[in-house]
Each structure stands twice: as structure tokens, then as C-alpha cells.
Amino acid sequence: MIHSLFLINCSGDIFLEKHWKSVVSQSVCDYFFEAQEKAADVENVPPVISTPHHYLISIYREKIFFVSVIQTEVPPLFVIEFLHRVADTFQDYFGECSETAIKDNVVIVYELLEEMLDNGFPLATESNILKELIKPPTILRSVVNSITGSSNMGETLPTGQLSNIPWRKAVVKYTNNEAYFDVIEEIDAIIDKSGSTVFAEIQGVIDSCIKLSGMPDLSLSFMNPRLLDDVSFHPCIRFKRWESERVLSFIPPDGNFRLISYRVSSQNLVAIPVYVKHIISFKENSSSGRFDVTIGPKQNMGKTVEGVIVTVHMPKAVLNMNLTSTQGSYTFDPVLKVLTWDIGKISPQKLPNLKGIVNLQSGAPKPEENPSLNIQFKIQQLAISGLKVNRLDMFGEKYKPFKGVKYITKAGKFQVRT
Amino acid sequence: MSASPAYSEEKGGSSSLGEPEYGHDPASGGIFSSDYKRHDDLKEMLDSNKDSLKLEAMKRIVAMIARGKNASDLFPAVVKNVACKNIEVKKLVYVYLVRYAEEQQDLALLSISTFQRGLKDPNQLIRASALRVLSSIRVPIIVPIMMLAIKEAASDMSPYVRKTAAHAIPKLYSLDSDQKDQLIEVIEKLLADKTTLVAGSVVMAFEEVCPERIDLIHKNYRKLCNLLIDVEEWGQVVIINMLTRYARTQFLSPNQNESLLEENPEKAFYGSDEEDSKDDKPDAASLVKRKPYVMDPDHRLLLRNTKPLLQSRNAAVVMAVAQLYFHLAPKAEVGVIAKALVRLLRSHSEVQWVVLQNVATMSIKRRGMFEPYLKSFYIRSTDPTQIKILKLEVLTNLANETNISTILREFQTYIRSMDKDFVAATIQAIGRCATNIGKVRDTCLNGLVQLLSNRDELVVAESVVVIKKLLQMQPSQHSEIIKHMAKLTDNIQVPMARASILWLIGEYCEHVPKIAPDVLRKMSKSFTGEEDIVKLQVINLAAKLYLTNSKQSKLLTQYVLNLAKYDQNYDIRDRARFIRQLIVPTEKSGALNKYAKKLFLAQKPAPILESSFKDRDHFQLGSLSHLLNAKAVGYQELPDWPDEAPDPSVRNVEVPEWTKCTSREKRKEKVEKPFYSDSEGESGPTESADSGAGPGRLCAGQQGGTAQPWQSFHGWRAAGSCEEEEQEQVKKGKKKPPQDEGKGGSESSWEEGSVSESSSSESDSGSEAEESQSEPESKRRTTVRGRAGQPGRGLLDQLITSQPQHVPTAFLPPSAQMLSPVFSTMKTYELLHRMAGEGLSVEYYFNRQPFPPDPHMVAVQIQFSNNTESEVKNLRVSEPKLVSGMRIQEFQEIESLAPGDTASVIMGIDFCDSTQAANFQLCTHSRQFYVSIQPPVGELMAPVFMSENEFKKEQSKLTGMSEITEKLTLLDKCQSDHTIVQRVTAAANVSRVPCGADNEYRFAAKTVTSGSLILITLEQKEAARAHLTVNSEKMVIGTMLVQDISQALAQ
After folding, report:
1. Which residue windows does the record flag with biased composition (Basic and acidic residues) (chain B) (predicted)?
2. What is the layout of strands, in order, in the sheet containing B858-866?
3. What is the tens place of the pLDDT at every residue in B663-672?
4. Nearest residue of B to residue A47 by CA position?
5. DSSP of A95-127
């Protein structure tokens, strides 16, 4: 299975290594660097590289390459999924999964890696168990540690590993018992030149923050569960209950976790909340072009569209852009050729517009394709699919928890072709 | 999260502790002396008495290891602390030890005794971690100690320790492969473990140590299938992959017969039930097609139990299930995985990359599966190039006549992309679409021709190459395009493209006889200014023209060759000289000259454009080898399906005769006796609640006093009594029909009443009661007499006389009247064997009674017998795991069942007119058993009464597709009316329909769930031949029924 792991930053430094079997020399990473060079772009480094004696499977997260060394046949997704789980754990422990965070907590990181794999096979990947084994750094603890010289290693023996519900710690106590659910839906769409929808679908997740004492057994039901076409579950959810009654029944992990992710059935038409009018043109034999984009709300169900950001990857030939915006501010990165227009809220009375001149490199041929516009937005208090949580019931504990549900709709991969 | 504010603090804290002295300091690693000195410092700290100092030192050392720095010279100082009281220090020492023990073997031995002590600790977690570290120390000398520790841990009380033992097995194996035999013993032992914690780890060990020992799995197969859903996610992946291989060696291919069918119907069939409906129907259909093939229940078990895992959040699990379905499921069922795989496309780009590669392979074989998700593969300009190219591959594989126009429209947008590699790939994709789909070939060609004017060299070159390939397939039809391309030579400057055009004109100069010499003329004019590759092609063109059209081009050729003779490039000079010798006849030119035409104008095969993912599916999907398209180290080949299924009984856990039907006859007899005797006793009180008329009416073959298994039904009886009345009507009707026969009108009105269960008939039921009670008795007597005349039917007779009957056979012609009502088909099936059920044995049969609470359900009579020493309590059904649409009406919980006692209950199952099994758990107060009931197709229907005319009318509506006919030969013993009717009604729950002709038999029924009519006609021809026809809109049921009946008649 997984032999070794190297963490490599963008400048090509190997800043952490961990071996679960015999040590593999760092030089194996040269193959990776070679592939990286060939790919030119970090996104295009092939995740699986074959070398004469090893296979390298890598992921790229937060400007760090997680490169694992494999010696024998193993499902590549197994490794990739695990590496992402490692990155998620770092995120969970240190608040961010960055090179500095890892370097500053190198001992914890090393201990975590030690616990997560045994002889290359995953052992404990549930964050609740890991936190029992190795305490995440907190203010209080680091102060105490510096005085007493103790470490973050758990003093008690972890019992979670033995339990039937490995995702939940045994003894949990809160003074305020709360359960929050965020229903977050993202609209993935491709809009073509004329404004008609080529492809649109809704992908949703329910992220939960559960702070409940003891062993609560929750069941969450929806007003319209039929909307959910394809669902993937956190392991805590009882599958059979969902199959028969369309109710999410589970003993939750403690803290933050993703309860389900779902896709809304593709038969339902997706309401696209914004529209874009655009004129982008480059004149033949001239070193300039026109850029004029207006964005407006549409079918927003009485809610305001906010947090609107338009990102455009301009053609390579673009030198710079002179634009004026009626709302928000824009920046153009002349190196990456990326135009970012941060609009904020859209008010239907006065539609935000950005227009002006595009300067091209003189002598460069006219770009053939107009760049596509990537749009981000947010709508609070609305689940665009119409999904509604009906009720949350708790069994197994006496107290009355505070419950809350929040809906939010965002743009996912929302692209307008021009 | 509270972690984020804490982090900054911690950052300060930890760096103040450890950082300044090494690590970031650029000078530190480089200067050896300072390095050495610092280690001295660490040694001192490790030797001190204070735990805090030791801990500090260990932290620094671990940090060094993490950064890849050598800390091996500290080994002696560190290893001393292995017995340190402080658990934190200890843990860090373990970390160090595991890393360096291999390099310092002798010193490492000092620590072994500590772990050996740990192995005996009363705390399971300490035992486990001691074993974990001990097995991680890669020192060959301790192999015997490890072996001993593993063996001991494998029988530890704690499942966690056993799990650790399983993890230790591959470690020991990699250290010393001579231990294999002993390790296999341990694996065998651990495989038998029933806890979910161990299952994943031991299968992992199995895969690493002895993947070839498939025989170890037999006994554990069912257990693994059932545990699967509760195993942790990583274990699931390993188990599923292993079971895929296992299933390939043990079961027959579910698609073996389908491959014999032609492509087209197959596709249509497949396309029609794409998504959700596929669970029941197609499966049934495929069951029909393979005559002798019935899916092994264990095979089905695997498919059923893995399906929910498609909803896992872990992409690796989803992929594992997907490949399992791809490799093992009947074609029609594979579709379920598409949805889940498409979901994974939303995940991280690495996951996308892997999934797309697998989808690409799958989409070649099973295109229909992904067609509904076509749009999910549309490309965004922000996708990384490697993802774009894979999506393009999938889109191309999915292209067919119907969707090609949408796909081409998409491709048009892609062609204008800024990402040139991607554009090139798109052009290739268009080429492939054009070769695969003849309809759009011209459109594609025109589009590509337009691309020739693109500014980008890569695009033009790619288009020319693709056009060239396309033209090669049918040049005669495309002289227009060749002409067009000839014109392009004026504008196009890209040398590669010019060269390609020239080659084309030369190759097909016969199709453009006028233009070719002209092009050559133009080219010879600009010859000196051309690029080298173009010049070579000009020479080529000249040579070909000289051979085909020497009149017009002789001089031009001479001119070009002369120009080339003095070219700067020696390749060109060489080529010119060579060609001149070859084509221009002189005295010196040898034999080759004669063959010049053959040499130049030989038929060149058109290149084949096909996916690079073709045939990749011989690698197990989802594997590393599949991804690399090369065998990776340690890859276990996915075996081909066996021709003959190996003995399925090897998977039986305790009792070999578990498989059905081996000794059914005997068992039936044995079982049924206690059943009745028991029910008699129990029935007493409840019976009285019911009307006295009940038993007699219900069971034609029984008398009022005879016990019958309806006790538990009583709860429903009140509600369902009207149905019973109707049955009475049936009997009443029996008297009339002989006279009424042929008069369709009056009968059909009656029939309506009975089918719709109207209560109108209830009114006269009272008066009929008497009659009906006396009648069956006499009938029974005659029956017994009649049957007794037949030799060798003793057993059946026994059944007939003792079993309750409900065979509603109205309107029988006189000859058959006495036979039908007594006919029995109560085949008993085993639900839970006595051994498997730990003393509780359960059997069931289809009693063919309507199920009053829900007319859409099939009634299943279940009989429990308690063979244990103790009472079994709270017998009930729980957690039905049903295919969508199926429903179960559970029976009332049986509070307790005394030892040696039996009880019987009735439950209703709505099978949705499919032969899919209903799975559920049978729970007792202490245990639960997974059981499943699979109905024979004949039990999915209820008899219908109709007249001959009615029958004919309905039959005429159900022709064509809905009619299934089979020819069969009736055996001698199967010639008599009696046997035929009996066998047909045994095979299916149907009633006989009167018929004028005496060589014809007709039967009618309706499916229980949807109420679709099923009409059966058996026509006897001369010489024992017969035609069996089934008319029904449910074609699947129809075909299966034909099979069943002809089998019943052939026995």
C-alpha cells in the first residue's frame, strides 16, 4: 500500500517526509519534478506517475504537493482519497493546510501520519478518534505545554477506536446543546453565447455543526425528499432508514462534519438567478478591443444576489485593460491575464456594468476566442432547488437542543461562454 | 473551530521551543561540527531525569526525522528511554525506533523485551500498540518472536488486538517470506472472525500474503458480504476488490447468453430501461434468456450488498463498487453505477482524472450507461487540460446518431479554445466521430476543411492530418474536397499542412486529373522557396503524376527533379536522384522501373481512428494497472468467468445440503407433518372466532374439521371475509358452467364481480354455505379414488389429502372438474436451515391465497420450528432490504416459541411482478438472520375466471410482442389431461379456462401487483408435440413462464 509520503512546496522543496515501511530515498521525487516541469502548469501534473521501481501518486492542495510512493498495485483512488483525508485532517487541526502551519506543527503532523497509516494501510482516519489520540493545538494547551513541558499527545487511551460508532467520542458534554445545519446549494452551469443554458444542475451539501451532549440519536426529515436524486452519506447515516422512509437518521459525530452531499435530479429545470449581457470583441489588424459586460438579477425569488465576482481569463495577447465600472472594483493581472471584477450586491434598479478598451500586444494576431466569464455569487436564505428541512427529532437524550437550519445558494462552476 | 486562533499562538509557542536551534536555520544542516554538537546536547537531555527535558529532546528528534535529516547517531540514547514511564515520551521513542531500528539492528534488540511485556498488558490498547511497534521493527532476528506474538494476538479477546494482528501479518511477510505457511494459518483463523473491525484488515493481509488462496474465502464469503456495509471504508475497498476476483472464479457469467444475441436488439433493450426500472425487469429478462443459467444466490448477494455503498462519501469505495458491477453484474444492472460515477466528477481534480479514465473505458463497452449524463462531461474553459482531454474522450465514445449534432455543436465551441493542445485533441475527436458515424462524415469534413484556414499551425496540421485520414476512407466521393484543398495551397503557409495537401493530391490524382498537374505547375514555380518537407512532397507529387499522366506532366517533373538536384538539402537531392532512376525509363534502369507504378500508387490502408481506451477493460477497472495500461507490480489478474460453475456448496457454512431442491421431497414430508399436527392444536380458539363455514369453503380438498394453516391469518379475516365469500361463489359457479359454457355474456358479468371483489355476490353466500360444505367432501372422495388409480403418486396423494387448498377452478369442463380442485403445488422452500439458524428452522411456501390486507401482495406462508433446547422469543421481521417498489407486510411478532414447537404465520410481499428476491432479517430476541424469499414466476399471479370467448377476445389484444410461443414435445406420461392440467397449475397459479377443442388447454391469471392478464394456451399436436403460447403484456413474466411450464411438462 502506501510506502512513503513527501510534502513538496511550490518551489520544489521537500519539507516533510514520512515512511511507513523501509525508507525510500528523496531522490524518487526527481521523477515527480520532471513530470511537473513537463506539465508546465500545476494543474496538469498527472496524479499518477510511473517510475522504474515505484509509482508516485500525488495530489495538489493549498499549494502543497502530497506525493506518495507506492510499490505495488493499489487502487489509485484509494491513495488519492487518503491523501485528501490527510489534508483535511491538517485543515481540521491547524485551521489551514499550509506549508507554514505544517512546519510549525511538525511533531503533531508526524504523529498524525503515524496514527493514520499502519504499514501503509489506513488505521484511524476519523477526526474524532485522532483528536482523542493527539490533541489539536489550542491556546490554553500551548501555554500549559510551554510551562509544564507536556505535549499534545493524548494522556488517556483512546477508546473511540474500539467503539461501534467510531466517528463519535465516548464522553461529550456541552452546557449549551446546539445542532446547526447549513444547506448549501451550488449551481453548476454553462451558459452559451446567446444566453441559453447549455447545462445546469444543482449540487448541494448539508454541513452540520453538532454540539450535543451524550449519545443523541437524530433524525432529520425533509418536506420534499424526492428532490434528492443522488445522495452520498457520511458513514453515520443509517442507509436503510433513508431507503425506506427518506429520513436521515444518525448518531452524529461531534463537531463539524458534512452530513450528506446530493445532486438534484436533472429533470428539474434549474432557475438561473443572474443574466449577463456582454460584448467582447477584438478588431482585426488593430491593437485594441471592446469589452462591455452587464450583469443583472433574474428569478431570484425576492432575494438579493450578493457577493458577485466576475473572473475572466483574457487571451494571452491582451496587454492591459482600461475599464470603468458603475459598481464595484476591478483588477487586471497582466501576468496571468486575469480580470477580476468584484461587484458585491446587485440591485435591480441599477445594473452593474463594466466597460472599456482592451489593449492588445501590437502585431499579435487577433484572439480567436472570446474568453468565458466565470461568475460567483451568493444568495442567502434560499435553497434554489426548493429543498426544505421539515423537522429534526432527537432521541436518546433528555435535554432540549437548540436547532437551526440555514439555507444558502452559491454559484458553483458557473461559466458564461462569450 | 477553536483551532484557528490557537494556531497562531501555537506557532509562536512551538517555535520558541524548538525552532531556533535547527531546522529553518540555513547554516545548521551544513556544518557537521555544529550538528554533532547539538546532538550532544540532545543526548544530555535524554539522559536527564526530567521527563519534560526528555520530551523536549524527543520532539526535536522527531522533527528532524520528519524533515529527512539523519538522527541515527542518537539511537543508543533514545532506545534507553523505551521503558520511560511518561506515555508521551514513550510514544515518540516508538516513532524513532520504527524509523531507525532497521539501521541499528543490534541496539534495537534492547527494546524488544519492553514490547514483549506490553503484549501481556491487561489493557487491550497497550497490547495492540506493543504489537504494532514490535511488528514494525524490521529486524529479521525477531521474526520468531513476531510470529509468536501474532499468533497469540490473533486469538486475543479484543477485536482491536486481532485487527492489529492482521496488520502485522504483511509486515512479517515482507520481512521473511518463508513464514508464509504459518501466516496463512493465522489469516485463515482471522478470516473466520465475525467482527467488522477485523474484516477489512485481514482481507488486506490476505491480499498481500496469499491472494491466490481463493479457497480460504469460500467459508467466509457470505459473512464478508453481509458485514461489508459496516466495515470501515478503507477495508470496504479491499474487500470489494478481492470479492470481485473471487466472484469471477466461482460464478457463471451473467451475460453469457446475451453475447450470442445480435447487437441491435441488445442495445435497444438496454437503452429502454436505463435508470431505475432496471432492477427488476431486465434482470428477469436476462434470467429467461439463459436457459440453464440462474444467478447463483451468492452472486446476487454480493451485488445486492455492495449496491448501497455506491452512496459512500469515499470515492475509492464508490469506484470499487462501480468496478464490481462492471465486471460482475448482468449487463442490464450495470447502469446504476453511472450516477454515482458522475457524482465523483464534482470531486477534487485528481479524483476526476482517475474516474474519467475509468469512465472512458466503460463508455466504450457500455455506451448506453452514460448517455443520460452526456452533459456532465461538457468541458469548461477552466478545467485543467488533462481533464479536458479525458472528457473529450468520453464525449467521443458516447457519440451516436442521435446525439451527434449536440456533441458537434459543443465541439465547435471547443475548437475556438485558447488551449491549443485541447483544440488539437478536439480535432482528433471530430475525426473519430466522423469515422464512427457515417451520417455526419460530410459535416465533419466540411468543418475540418474550414479549420484549414486557422492561423494556428497546430490546428491546421491536426486538421489536415485528420482530413487526410477521413479522405483515405472513401476518396472517390470527395474529389470536391480534394479540389478545395488544392485551392488552399495558395493561402496556407503552414508547411506541414501544405505537405499533407500535396500528398493527398498525389495519392488521389486520378480523382482530380485536371487540377493535379496545375498544382504541380504552381508548386514547381515556388519550389525553391518552400520548406523541406514541402519540397519532398512536391517531388512525390511529381513522381506520381509522371506515372499516371506523363503526357501533361513529363516536363514539369523533369523540371522539379532538376531543381531538386541542386537543392541545398541532401535529403532532397537524394530523393530526386532516387526517383529519377526509378520512374524515368533509361537503358540502365533495372527491373524496378516496371514496378514503379506499383511502388508509388499502391493501395494504402486507411488509418483506423480508435480510442486509446479500447480493450483496457481486461485490467480490473479502478486499478493502478488499468490507469497505466500496464501491469503493475503485484497486480492480480482478473480471471475469466469459468465455463462450469465450481461447486457452490463450498460456501455453505455448516450444512452441505443447504442448497435447495436436493432432497426436497423427503424434507417436505418430514416437515409438513409436525406443521399440521401443531397447527391443529393452536387453531382451536381462534378458529371459533371465524365463521364455521370458513375452512370448508376455503379448501376444496378439506373438510370442516381438518386443520389448516390459517390461524395467524385470523386477524385479517374479518376484513377479508368478502373474498372468501367470493371463493364460495366460485364453487357455486362450478355447478352452473357446464350448462352455461359458451355463453360468454352471462359468465363475463360474473367474472367481473369476482375480479373486482365486489360485494354484490356476498348476499347469497349464506345460502350457499351449506351446499359448498357438502360438496367438497364428495369431491374429495372422488379425487382420492381417481388418484389412487395412478401408480407412483403416493406422496402427492398424501399431500393432497392433508394440505389446504385454494385452487379456484371454476368453469372446468366435466372431464377436469374433479381433478383440479384437489391439485396441490405446495412446494416448500427453505428460508433458514436448522444449522444456520442455530436450531431455528424456517420454511415457507406460497399458499396461493389472496392476501386480504393488500390485494397486490403475494401471500407467503412461513413456518417456524424451534429445534433448540430453549424458548425462542420475539420472532419478527426487521429491516427489509427491498428493491424499489417492493413492499412487505410483516407478520405479527411471535412472542415466544417453545422448544420443539412450530408456528406458522402468513406475510404478504408485493414483488412488483418481478422475480427479485425480497430480503429481510428474521430477528429473534437474541439473534438476527439474513433471509430472502425469491418467488418462482408462477407465484406472481392469481387465477382469473373467464369464458372461452372472453379468453379469445383478450388473447387477440395480446399478440405480437406480447405473445411468446414455444414448441415442445410431451412425454408419454405427460399425455393425459389430468397430468397436463396438474403440471401447469403446479408451475403457476392459474385457473383453467373452458375450451371447446379437446386438444387444447387454456389457463388464465392476472399478475398480483399490476393485474396484467396472463393467458396460457397449450395446444396438443400430433405425435406428442405441442405448442405452448403465453400472452401477456408483461413480456418478461411471459417468457419466464413459458420456460417454467415447459420445464414442468418435460419432467
Report:
1. 664-675
2. B829-832, B840-850, B858-866, B902-910, B887-889
3. 344 444 333 3
4. B350
5. SS--HHHHHHTHHHHHHHHHHHEETTEE----H
3-state secondary structure B385-396: HHHHHHHHHHHH
User: What number is the average pLDDT over the span B704-726?
Assistant: 38
**SS3 for B908-957, per residue?**
EEECCCCCCCEEEEEECCCCEEEEEECCCHHHHEEECCCCHHHHHHHHHH
Which residues on neighbouring strands pair with residue B842, listed in sequence order?
A: B832, B864
Q: What is the DSSP code (8-state) at residue A370?
A: P
Asked if A244 has any chain B CB less than 8 Å from its own CB, the reply is yes
Q: Look at strands A338-344 and A306-313 and give their pairing.
A: antiparallel
Contact between B947 and B751 (Cβ < 8 Å): yes
Q: Which residues pair with A294 in a beta bridge?
A: A277, A353
| Residues forming a β-bridge with A312 | A339, A373
Q: How far apart are CA B78 and CA B58, in angstroms?
A: 8
DSSP code of residue A390: E
The count of other CB atoms within 10 Å of the CB of residue B20 is 11
B232 touches chain A (CB under 8 A): yes
Over residues A110-159, the pLDDT tens digits come to 888 988 888 888 888 888 778 877 877 766 555 555 555 555 555 555 55
Q: Tell me the residues of chain B between 324 and 383 that have a Cβ less than 8 Å away from chain A.
A: 339-340, 342-343, 346, 348-351, 353-355, 372, 375-376, 378, 380-382
> Which residue is it, cell 482528433?
B428
Cell of B486: 488544392
Three cell numbers written together for B993: 379456462
The pLDDT confidence band at residue B255, using thresholds 50, 70 and 90, is confident
Where helices occur in B549-613 by DSSP H, the ranges are: 550-565, 570-583, 596-600
Enter the C-alpha cell of residue B525: 514555380
Residue B782 in this model has a pLDDT that exceeds 50: no
pLDDT at B376: 86
Q: Which A residues in the span 3-62 are in contact with B, Cβ-Cβ below 8 Å?
A: 14-19, 21-23, 26, 41, 43-44, 46-48, 50, 55, 58-61
Which H or E run contains A376? Answer: strand A373-380
Phi then psi dihedrals of residue A273, to 5 deg: -80, -10
CB contact set of B492 (below 8 Å; sequence gap of 6+): B452, B453, B460, B498, B501
Mean of the per-residue pLDDT values for chain A? 84
CB interface of B with A, residues 432-471, below 8 Å: 454-456
Per DSSP, the three-state class of A216 is: coil
Query: DSSP for B583-612?
Result: HS--SS--GGGGGHHHHHSPPPPPPP---T
A-chain residues near B62 (CB < 8 A): 106-107, 110-111
Closest CA to B65 of B40, B101, B33: B101
Q: Is A111 on the interface with B (CB under 8 A)?
A: yes
Query: What pLDDT is recorded for position B318?
Result: 92
* B637, pLDDT greater than 70: yes
| Lookup result for grid cell 448482468 | B330
ipTM field: 0.89
The pTM of this model reads 0.67
Which three three-digit cell numbers place residue A184? 448549501
Taking the C-alpha atoms of residue B758 and residue B722, their distance in angstroms, rounded to an integer, is 8
Tens-place pLDDT, residues B896-947:
888 878 888 888 888 878 777 888 888 887 778 888 888 888 888 888 878 8
| Cβ partners under 8 Å of residue B936, min gap 6 | B827, B846, B915, B987, B1044
For A219-229, b where at least 16 C-beta lie within 10 A, e where not — what string? bbebeebebbb
How do beta strands A402-416 and A353-360 pair? unpaired
Q: What mean pLDDT value characterizes chain B?
A: 73
pLDDT, tens only, B553-587: 888 888 888 888 888 888 999 988 888 888 877 76
Closest C-alpha to B954, from B860, B859, B1031, B842: B1031
